């Protein structure tokens, strides 16, 4: 086997194992020895390809986020071309951003639910190095989608849209991180609530079907009333959405 192909296979095997271990045990709970043992490589191989555990985690994310960011921009570009200069509907923007992410859970070649859970669990409490990494990776995509929301909801204060986006990102992160909290709340596992155990593809599709309407409902909720802004006209977001062309729920 050519050396380049061998190095590529080794690198991908390390990334596959690291992705599963980081998801299962977290960054701190995953040791390099665990990764090298399960990937059947020595520590020198990991150091050669990645240099450190921090760099390895970043590469685990970069491998998946490269596709995600490109796809989000591609979908948004296509929607804006179809709109021919008109603002997009809020549901289109949310579907393009969050729906594209949920598609990863349905496709094992993109990381499937393993990667989604890893992403969710990392986003809920990121270390400083991974926080800086995410900020860099997401900068262009978040700016494009934020501007699309500003255009879609011109009567809503931009600060409020940013807050809503913040809340939606938090809900998404918590939802994809896993379903352990359901056992705490209800005393039952996800299989008990759904009526049967789910495979990864089915789980991702049903999670998306539950999450997307929830996010859109949160975006459309009435604006808060603050005493210091009482002199400003407060427009319920639901009313703003109704003033736009009729749209289907995602």
TrEMBL record:
Superkingdom assignment: Bacteria
UniProt feature, compositional bias: Polar residues: 241-250
Pfam families per UniProt: TetR_C_30, TetR_N
Keywords annotated in UniProt: DNA-binding, Repressor, Transcription, Transcription regulation
DNA-binding region extent: 31-50
Single GO molecular function: transcription cis-regulatory region binding
Start and end residues of each HTH tetR-type domain: 8-68
Annotated region (Disordered), positions in chain: 228-250
PANTHER family noted in UniProt: HTH-TYPE TRANSCRIPTIONAL REGULATOR RUTR (PTHR30055), TRANSCRIPTIONAL REGULATORY PROTEIN (PTHR30055:SF235)
Stated name of the protein: TetR/AcrR family transcriptional regulator
Native species: Candidatus Propionivibrio dominans
């Amino acid at each position: 086997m050519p050396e380049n192909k061998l190095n590529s296979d080794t690198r991908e095997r390390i990334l596959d194992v690291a992705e599963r271990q980081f998801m299962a045990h977290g960054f701190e709970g995953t040791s390099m020895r665990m990764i090298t043992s399960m990937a059947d490589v020595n520590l020198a191989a990991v150091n050669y390809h990645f240099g450190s555990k921090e760099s390895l985690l970043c590469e685990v994310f970069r491998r998946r986020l490269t596709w995600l960011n490109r796809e989000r921009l591609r979908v948004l570009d296509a929607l804006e071309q179809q709109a021919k200069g008109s603002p997009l509907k809020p549901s289109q923007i949310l579907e393009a951003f969050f729906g594209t992410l949920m598609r990863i859970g349905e496709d094992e070649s993109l990381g499937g639910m393993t990667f989604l859970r890893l992403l969710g669990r990392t986003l809920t409490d990121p270390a400083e190095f991974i926080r800086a990494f995410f900020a860099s990776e997401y900068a262009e995509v978040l700016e494009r989608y934020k501007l699309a929301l500003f255009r879609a909801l011109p009567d809503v204060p931009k600060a409020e849209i940013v807050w809503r986006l913040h809340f939606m990102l938090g809900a998404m992160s918590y939802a994809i991180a896993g379903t352990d909290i359901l056992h705490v709340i209800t005393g039952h596992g996800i299989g008990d609530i759904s009526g049967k155990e789910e495979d990864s593809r089915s789980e991702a599709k049903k999670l998306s079907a539950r999450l997307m309407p929830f996010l859109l409902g949160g975006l459309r909720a009435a604006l808060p009333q603050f005493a210091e802004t009482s002199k400003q006209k407060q427009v319920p977001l639901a009313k703003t959405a109704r003033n736009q062309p009729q749209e289907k729920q995602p």
